[in-house]
């Protein structure tokens, strides 16, 4: 086992949200196996009990809902009391909402923003004072292929991930001079309970040819279309280990392909309509 130390010889400390399942669970497991210490947050931490027993005091389990700012602040206090510092913040907790933009209810939309966007902000406000004081740290912002692209059925999920990406662009530039790094994590389809945990909006017949076709298509995808969560976690750890991590990290060929296609459409629109764009300058 290779233990990871910072420049002062401290064990590297992770704070991971959504650590009980899927990508977050793999990240937790791999960080522990590489010798790091982890503060693991989730609403119900019991799925990590065995891992905690196996790794003794190096895994701190903290029941915390990311929607509850005070609970997140308390979790950061407990992390500092146990480990003394935070080196990597993995803003990973999140879930999906599937359905046409028009189909999703106000309650469903506010709920998914509450976790995927306002939860991320709660974690940032609680952890950045620690990282700024240290003048070091790495924030991993949980996005997705849908942080740069969208297709029928994922409009609201994409809205949350686009929000995370927009604020992360600014955040990265704000905290870089303070010694803090930011990487936006963009997995493609990954084999986790994510699809089982999807919230689904009520169906309107008019969206059968678009949204329901996509839903059917996703349901029929072969297992080979999904990356293993362990590989996604390993990719994230490669970026964390790098002295020059990227601002954006696409994980999985499907993620890169989807984002490239979306970026090309944007470039085509910019180029094709440049005469109108420039025409309003005068
Ligand atoms: N799987 C994919 O295809 C895929 C693709 C791109 C991006 N992603 C992103 O990757 C991240 C992890 O997803 P996953 O695939 O690993 O899904 P997952 O297996 O469903 O895990 C989600 C985790 O988030 C936690 N969580 C959800 N709501 C929470 C809340 N309000 N407060 C605290 N924790 C909460 C869950 O724990 P509790 O329910 O116990 O709280 C769970 O540990 C998400 O941000 C997702 O958008 C996933």
TrEMBL record:
Keywords on record: Oxidoreductase
UniProt superkingdom: Bacteria
Oxidoreductase listed as a keyword: yes
Organism: Streptomyces wedmorensis
Gene3D superfamilies, alphabetized: NAD(P)-binding Rossmann-like Domain
Protein name (record): SDR family NAD(P)-dependent oxidoreductase
Family: Belongs to the short-chain dehydrogenases/reductases (SDR) family.
CDD domains in UniProt: 17beta-HSD-like_SDR_c
